[in-house]
Design goal:
heterodimer; A: 477 residues; nine-stranded antiparallel β-sheet; five-stranded mixed β-sheet; 24 strands; 26% helix; B: mainly beta; five-stranded mixed barrel
């Protein structure tokens, strides 16, 4: 089963009992954020807030569409109880078979069109999510579309954007994001505005793919089709050449100004802290807004895990890491980042490890930018999806001196949202990355140096294991 | 006192008192436009009681911590929708400074 739009997905969540419909009026200022946050921390369902203060009936907010592995499985069209390991496998497998999007002349997202001086982004119930945030965030679980003006490659990203005023939104796409690179390499040198479209309320897979690390030049709409196992339907924007999901709830068409800025943030972000403070952000002027009747604004009340960003997004991030390592010749077996790691710690399994391999991994994962600040490398006998095994390996196999490798990442490439950084490091995107080598040195002779793992599977002869398993019940267990 | 506004600053010591300055402030009036920003030329004072004709200015630090005592702000004029400068300019500046 695939979902053409958010509304079909909501219907499916209703069938499986994975959504709550809140009919009582809630305030877009803090109440929506607080209810959503508490609900995440109780591992609750997605929430559709159906009556928002200051807004007419029919304008609603959906929080947490992919905030649990169950909901990710449902979005994939799989049984809700599908295992985490299987979700990773499924994403890895599906994304290889790209499906080109279908281009439509018209789409539901054009049911209402506001242009020019009639534009007022306050028309939509953007939530003020956390006490102390810089403003109302219209874009948290969004898709931001932009284009390379030379190759016409269209890129999807997920970047936060807040309301600046009626006609402007201001965001935090990082300097080394694809949007940031295109802006500074292709538009700013010519002093040209960069067209963007901020999409809210598309099908769930398209949002997931927007949050993924997909290589430059690859059309995310094709990847979304691949994971959805059905072509995504796109429609052209009204005021620029960008293509957006035709069934999206709201599309904000604008242009990033090359010579203007405005204060953005602060905002309680995915690591679970409001870390990086107010800064001069990336400012976009809105030229048009198109939206469906009774639009649904998608959001996430980001914070400590679990939420969509710590549950769903790491699937795509981990698989991207796996592919990069494979392409560089690393004998990688599996990659996992648990929700609690908030895309700061990644666990990498390898067929054969050692210090040289770990150093190579560290170099590969810090080339363009470095979201991960902790890299744990384990041998293939450790199941990366089992944190008990990972912590056991870290505790026993990581040499306190030789096993810890620290690399200073070039300024501008670090993750400014990492809470332990100093204010100066955050501002300059300057962050060291540490790798923990939890593998046996390849030069150690097996017979004399590599300790014998005392697990049932590994320390007993096959015939004894067979006997114990066969007689298990007769022992009285 | 009139309207209430909000400002974010690196630290309270960064507020310039007693002379015209360009600042970004957010409107705290209830309703749909609450938190919309304005760039204004204004005079600020740490003593609202000495500035009775001014508006109230609540101050938050760069990471959003609210200072308990509000300042006063007298708006002289609006100064456009935004600040002229480069996107990511602050980060680019920090990188080159280090």
């Amino acid at each position: 089963m695939s979902f053409k739009d958010l509304r079909e997905f909501i219907s499916r969540l209703k069938e499986t009992g994975d959504i709550k419909f809140v009919k009582e009026e809630v305030d877009w200022e803090l109440e929506v954020g607080a209810v959503s946050r508490r609900n995440y921390e109780l591992s609750g369902p997605a929430i559709l807030f159906e009556k928002i203060k200051d807004y007419p009936s029919g304008y609603s907010i959906l929080n947490g569409s992919l905030g649990t592995f169950r909901r990710v499985a449902i979005a994939f069209g799989l049984p809700p109880e599908t295992s985490v390991r299987e979700l990773y496998r499924e994403y890895e497998k599906r994304k290889e078979h790209l499906i080109p999007p279908k281009i439509l002349e018209k789409g539901p997202c054009k049911e209402n069109i506001i242009r020019g001086s009639d534009v007022d982004v306050n028309h939509f119930p953007a939530p003020y999510i956390h006490e102390g945030d810089g403003g109302r965030y219209i874009g948290t679980w969004d898709i931001v579309v932009c284009m390379d003006p030379d190759t016409k490659w269209q890129n999807w990203g997920m970047y936060r954007f807040m309301i600046h005023n009626e006609r402007y939104i201001v965001g935090f796409p990082r300097l080394h994001s694809h949007l940031g690179l295109l802006l500074h390499q292709k538009y700013k040198p010519k002093n040209k505005p960069m067209p963007i479209a901020l999409v809210l309320g598309a099908d769930p897979i398209s949002h997931l793919i927007a949050s993924a690390s997909i290589r430059k030049g690859i059309n995310e709409a094709e990847v979304s089709g691949a994971v959805n196992r059905e072509a995504i339907e796109l429609v052209k924007c009204e005021t620029n050449d960008l293509m957006v999901p035709a069934h999206a709830e709201i599309v904000i068409e604008g242009e990033i100004l090359p010579d203007a800025t405005a204060q953005e943030g602060p905002f309680g972000e995915y690591p679970g802290y409001r870390t990086e403070g107010v800064r001069m952000g990336v400012l976009a002027r809105i030229n048009a807004i198109t939206f469906r009747d009774n639009p649904i604004l998608t959001m996430i009340s980001l914070g400590i895990p679990p939420d969509d960003n710590s549950v769903a997004t790491p699937i795509t991030s981990a698989i991207a890491v796996k592919e990069r390592l494979k392409a560089s010749g690393i004998p990688v077996t599996d990659v996992y980042t648990p929700p609690e790691a908030v895309i700061h710690t990644v666990i990498i399994g390898v067929k054969s490890g050692g210090n040289a391999i770990v150093r190579q991994i560290l170099d590969i994962l810090t080339t363009r930018r470095s979201d991960w600040s902790k890299i744990i490398v384990v041998d293939q006998d450790v199941d990366v999806f089992d944190m008990a095994q990972v912590i056991h390996a870290l505790s026993t196999k990581c040499h306190p001196r030789r096993g810890i490798i620290i690399k200073d990442v070039e300024k501008g490439k670090g993750n400014p949202l990492t809470p332990c950084l100093t204010p100066e490091e955050r501002r300059a995107y300057m962050a060291p990355v540490v790798a923990f080598d939890c593998t046996w040195p390849p030069e150690w002779p097996k017979e004399t140096h590599i300790p014998i793992k005392s697990s049932f599977n590994e320390i007993y002869p096959e015939e004894i294991k067979q006997k114990v398993i066969e007689k298990w019940k007769s022992y009285g267990f | 006192m009139g309207k209430e506004w909000l400002i974010f600053v690196p630290g309270i010591e960064d507020l310039i008192e007693g002379k015209e300055t360009i600042v970004t402030i957010r409107d705290l009036s209830p309703g749909r436009k609450k938190y919309n920003a304005k760039v204004v030329k204004a005079i600020l004072s740490r003593n609202p009681e000495e500035f009775p004709e001014a508006d109230i200015l609540w101050v938050r630090s760069w990471i959003g911590t609210l200072y308990q005592r509000p300042w006063a702000i007298k708006i002289i004029e609006e100064a456009g929708d935004y600040i002229h400068g480069s996107p990511h300019g602050e980060t680019l500046g920090s990188i080159s400074d280090l």
